[in-house]
Design goal:
With 288 residues, this protein is of the alpha/beta class. The protein is built from six helices and 13 strands. Helices cover 25% and strands 20% of the residues.
Length: 288
């Protein structure tokens, strides 16, 4: 197009695509550019504002490495990650929630009833539940990838004082579909604010806090994989999670348990002589 104007530039962009472009790419990229062009026209975007946006993206890219994923965090804090989850969650199963930027692949096997608390201080938490299908039948052979923060509010990938797979474990369910483990009670924490996302929070007048939670990735043959997290009902940030991850069916309740009630079948059985907290939370998978 020889005479590009502010009104026909979107049409020109679409016209430059080749005839053999993947149809889904044409749809997604075309819609993205259309909305971006409409946004620029709507707010009458200035050169300085455009440059500021480019610098923000450049800084986000420069701070990324194998352990720091600033673009994932950006997607989280603007709600895009959660929106994609919400678009594809199935109401008959457990809701999905954000993966977050701190998951580490290759977690070591953790026996059902195993312990992740190890040497760390903090309230002892016993968590268990059943991985089941939408009819309530337990699923055998499901893998449950579990991770959380340490008591200092940091994931192992953020904290040189932790082992690589601290507070990470991978369980496989038996015929009863049960997962179970002990750990330290998760704590609320701030997402990293020492990079461009911190500047974003300041500009928006927002806090960076997430409610405490446990992460799960659950997979089983013939079922849709589930990426989710569960939150205690009394957490002070439950109603304003900075990454928009809370769903009503992911809110759980801790039970305060008295000394002497710790059950058999756990790595810590016979070793717990004080009070602890317990949570029971089932995970429902949807068939593919």
């Amino acid at each position: 197009m020889r005479n590009v104007t502010k009104d026909n530039i979107t049409e020109a962009f679409m016209g430059y695509m080749g005839d053999d472009v993947n149809p889904r790419l044409r749809e997604v990229l075309g819609s993205l550019v259309t909305h971006l062009h409409d946004f620029a026209r709507e707010v009458n975007l200035t050169h300085d504002e455009w440059q500021l946006g480019l610098e923000f993206l450049e800084k986000s890219g420069m701070i990324c490495d194998d352990e720091r994923h600033e673009f994932v965090l950006l997607s989280d804090v603007i709600g895009l990650s959660s929106l994609v989850d919400l678009l594809h969650s199935r109401p008959e199963g457990t809701s999905s929630s954000v993966l977050g930027p701190f998951h580490i692949s290759g977690a070591p096997p953790l026996a059902v009833g195993g312990d992740m608390k190890d040497r760390f201080d903090g309230p002892l938490c016993l968590a268990e539940g059943i991985v089941k299908d939408t009819d309530g039948n337990p699923i055998e052979g499901a893998t449950v990838d579990i991770w959380q923060t340490a008591p200092n509010g940091l994931y192992s990938s953020q904290d040189p004082g932790q082992d690589t797979y601290s507070f990470h474990g991978l369980q496989t369910t038996g015929p009863d579909g049960r997962y179970a483990f002990t750990s330290v009670k998760p704590v609320e924490y701030e997402v990293p604010t020492d990079g461009p996302i911190g500047e974003f929070f300041k500009a928006c007048g927002r806090h960076a806090w997430r409610p405490s939670h446990l992460h799960f990735i659950v997979k089983a043959k013939g079922f849709r994989s589930l990426v989710t997290e569960v939150f205690p009902e009394d957490d002070p940030y439950l109603d304003q999670d900075t990454v928009f991850g809370v769903r009503e069916d992911l809110v759980m309740r801790y039970q305060n348990m008295e000394a002497g009630t710790f059950p058999e079948g756990f790595a810590l059985s016979g070793k717990v002589d004080g009070p602890y907290i317990r949570v029971d939370f089932d995970l429902t998978l949807v068939r593919e």
